[in-house]
# Entry
Amino acid sequence: MKILLPVALVSFLLLLSAALLQREQQADEPQTQDVIEQTALNSTAEPANLAPRTPTWQNIPESSVPTDFRRPTIDNVAYLEVGGMDGLAAGDTLTIMIPQENKTYSVDISEVSVSQSGNRSLAGFVDGQAIYRFLITVGSKQTFATLNTPGGQYQMEARDGIGRLIPTAAIKAKLDYTKPDYVIPERFKEVDTVNEINKG
# Structure
């Protein structure tokens, strides 16, 4: 027991000395935040232009739209340049053009939410009227919108800044509600036929 006590005391004193030495060395070094602040003060570089992009929702001619994005089989489709909506916040206003109505509306953003994947959803009212709602979901490459105006309901889908705006009535006009809205892959049709044969 007499030998263990001095060994423990020596070990403790060595650890204490090392800790005090490390603390003195840290006190002599400038703190990281101080270095960052000093570097920023001494910097002569021009600040980066971090201004948000101006939101756009403008009508464009069909000829400027990639052919694989056009919808020639649906009536009354309008094509848009869409962008800059990722920086909008609650309280902001977005001006949108509805070419089908030849009218511009003011969209008041009342709510913004961000999903786990980073998509932003903007919700609010068209021309400040509670009966005319809109919802815009902005992703990294695609944007989707549903909006109601006094002239009707619309769906908008945009890819890489090019959008198509379609009246919901035009989409519904092409649907045949007497037919199923799903497709059974051929390989499963064959399995069903074999099962029917095996039952019989």
User: Anything to note?
Assistant: Residues 57-171 form one domain. The chain has two domains: 4-42, 57-171. The chain has four helices and nine strands. The longest strand covers residues 103-114.
